[in-house]
Amino acid sequence: MTDAPHALHDKPEPVPLPEPREGIPPVVADPEGLAEVVAAFAGGTGPVAVDAERASGYRYGQRAYLVQLRREGAGSALIDPIACPDLSELNAALADTEWVLHAAPQDLPCLDGLGMRPTRLFDTELAGRLAGFSRVGLGPMVEHVLGYVLEKGHSAADWSTRPLPEPWLRYAALDVEVLVDLRHALEAELDRQGKLRWAHEEFAAIAAAGPPAPRTDPWRRTSQLHKVRRRRQLAVVRELWYTRDRIARERDVSPSRVVPDAALVSAALAMPHSPHLLAAINGFNRMSRRQLDDWLKAIEDARALPEEALPPTTAPQQGPPPPRAWNERDPAAAARLSAAKAALGELAERHRLPQENLITPDTVRRVCWEPPDGGDEAALAQALRDRGARPWQVELVAPVLAGVFARAGAAKAG
């Protein structure tokens, strides 16, 4: 894939976009200011650009610390969701409005926590993927499509800071400044490529999806966990992880700022019996005796667990085994998967979009491991629909998989 589709090549040299058109709007932090924003945006026209800033890496959870909006006829607004935690009236004012977001699934959960949820949306990042862009960050997209250079220096800032510095507010306002313009340009490009229906189906699926389900065994995402091979030591990681999560929630800080993952793994491998030994592990070395006792209790709780309560060495399997085990467990399924990946890779390349947007890798693995009865195109189409594939994906993918399965069956019969 190229950096920009053919219709968007040969644009003039990008120019910096240093300031919002109407300047930096004041931060709304009281009911009166919020009521004015609600009235202004209710009277606006066309789509509304929406963005949110979090404090990932600084604070616990993924709550929003600034919400930015822009709409024709209303201008731009910056809202402090800590001072104004209920934005349901604003949501009602935008009930029938299309929201324009960049990487919508990242922002929708924190907006939902404020009472804001779109009924219709346009995701400019996903639109860029479908249109064939290789770089789909907001900055590169605005540069390639609209010819503006956005400053992106504050994306990883601690947005829980109060008051927010003016350069950060300028950055935040600029993030929604041209989002609707980008939406219109991408819509035209998708229409030119014959992919607009695909995009509409994808956007509808995002808008209809509920909040993400809680992760099963979230402690298993601890980095360097592969170093821990014994079940008792895994239990220590688990107890330390939940202890850290509790402390982080109570302090409202990112868990990594309490104790890094590497320290949890080191403590699990060492399983220290005393505060002195625990304090010798990097990450625990600056704690008070009382804090060390709290962490030691977690280790002792894991040490005292009966054998049957220890976690398995690998996560409980949901779905097919890892593909690396397929050759040994089911060579025919391994051959189907290999052929399917190759055929779908060619299909994705032909339509100039990432293979994972053509169809999710998990869906491919599942239908290759357990093919639907018959394995013909109709059965595969139903299996894809059952796994959440959109109509456009089914239309493209089912015939290709049916061909792969037919050839695999013929080869086996021969």
From TrEMBL:
It comes from the Bacteria. It is an enzyme of class 3 (hydrolase). Residues 230-309 form the HRDC domain. Residues 1-13 have a biased composition (Basic and acidic residues). Residues 1-24, 306-330 are annotated as: Disordered. One of its GO terms (molecular function) is ribonuclease D activity. GO terms for biological process: nucleobase-containing compound metabolic process. SMART domains: 35EXOc, HRDC. Keywords: Hydrolase. Its EC number is 3.1.13.5. It holds the Pfam family DNA_pol_A_exoN. This is Ribonuclease D. It comes from Allostreptomyces psammosilenae.
